[in-house]
Design a protein that fits this description.
Keywords: Repressor, Stress response, Transcription, Transcription regulation. The chain contains 15 helices and 10 strands. By secondary structure, it is α+β, with helices and mostly antiparallel strands. A 5-stranded antiparallel sheet has the order 7-3-10-9-8, sandwiched between helices.
């Protein structure tokens, strides 16, 4: 943000106005913007040649690019970042968008997973982009853990929570595990878990293993680490990434190689790679975060943008995230308030139903 402010302060009023109008026109049309178009929109009366000179200066700064020698200019990713950080004006979602989101969350259904499914579909429909919803994990305090060997390469961890909820999770144990080593691992864990959630236990276990590695078989410690990290079983109580609106991006007019990049992106998402990264992205700051193109490794190949916001439980702890993927020429002024509004409503609904 500081860098954006510095660049904008170094611009004169005319350069800032030309840059703002050019980016807004590009975001609206998706096509390169020429000097004559800008000349008609400027408040002051200047020639097209003067505007072209300003555009050349902005291109020299790395804010604009010329796709073809005779075409107008488009903002670069750096230019879009400057616009978003320094010039973008945002208000509240309009009444129509709010009403559509409100209707989705207002449907009577006690199932959080079903509610988040509907949120993903509504967010995709409202924004005409692809929506992402990262559902919360079940985070009650644990009462008991047990490991059950099913085969040489397959085992089950049984988690009993203090509220009576029971989960069974499959995982692949390290080679050489025996029923005895699994019992030893379970006894080790059960001495630590009382009054702690699964995420808290993970941290405690790692610290205890570092301190007491000599007291516990190495294979058993490896099995603990992989067993606690396993999230193979799908279900409404598990961390789950909901992706909706793939067709909105795939139906965009574009070259075959661009569509293939978008397909690759969705294949990655549907295989649930880097799901945890969505929470990591949002934990670095409050409210909505915007990632443009190569600023996020998941979207650098497809050249897409991600607008994402966390939602929190009643204890103000981040438990999930909602977001929208679209082309870099997203209507950020409209999309950002929608994502922010949706995240706040989802957090309230999840907290009310917990």
């Amino acid at each position: 943000m500081t860098n954006a402010n510095t660049i904008l302060q170094d611009m004169n009023d005319r350069s800032r106005e030309v840059f703002r109008l050019l980016v807004e026109s590009y975001l609206d049309t998706g096509t390169p913007v020429g000097s004559r178009t800008l000349t008609r929109s400027l408040n002051e009366k200047v020639s097209a040649a003067t505007v072209r000179n300003v555009m050349q200066d902005l291109e020299y700064l790395g804010l604009l690019d010329s796709p073809h020698a005779s075409a107008g200019r488009v903002p670069t990713h750096m230019g879009l970042r400057l616009f978003v950080d320094g010039l973008l004006q945002m208000g509240d979602p309009n009444m129509q968008d709010r009403a559509r989101i409100d209707r989705t969350l207002g449907e009577s259904n006690s199932d959080v997973g079903g509610m988040l499914d509907r949120v993903g579909a509504a967010l995709s429909g409202v924004t005409q982009g692809a929506s992402l919803v990262l559902t919360p994990k079940y985070e009650a305090e644990l009462r008991h853990i047990e490991f059950v060997s099913l085969a040489q390469d397959r085992a089950l961890v049984v988690l009993v929570f203090s509220d009576g909820h029971v989960e069974n999770r499959l995982f692949t144990p390290p080679p050489g595990q025996t029923p005895s080593s699994m019992r030893e691992a379970a006894n080790f864990l059960n001495a630590l878990i009382e009054g702690r959630t699964l995420s808290e236990v993970r941290q405690d276990v790692q610290a205890e293993i570092n301190k007491r590695r000599q007291e516990i078989d190495t294979l058993a410690s490896d099995m603990i680490e992989s067993g606690l990290a396993a999230w193979e079983q799908d279900g409404n109580d598990q961390a789950r990434l909901i992706v909706r609106g793939r067709a909105n991006l795939l139906s965009e007019d574009g070259a075959p190689d661009e569509l293939e990049k978008i397909r690759t992106l969705f294949d990655d998402l549907e295989r649930k790679r880097d799901i945890a990264e969505f929470l990591e992205l949002t934990e670095e700051g409050d409210g909505v975060r915007i990632f443009i193109g190569s600023e996020n490794k998941l979207f650098s190949l497809s050249g897409s943008s991600l607008v994402v916001s966390p939602y929190m439980n009643a204890d103000r702890k981040i438990i999930g995230a909602v977001g929208v993927i679209g082309p870099t020429r997203l209507n950020y002024g409209r999309i950002v308030p929608i994502v922010d509004y949706t995240a706040q409503l989802v957090g309230k609904m999840v907290s009310d139903q917990s």
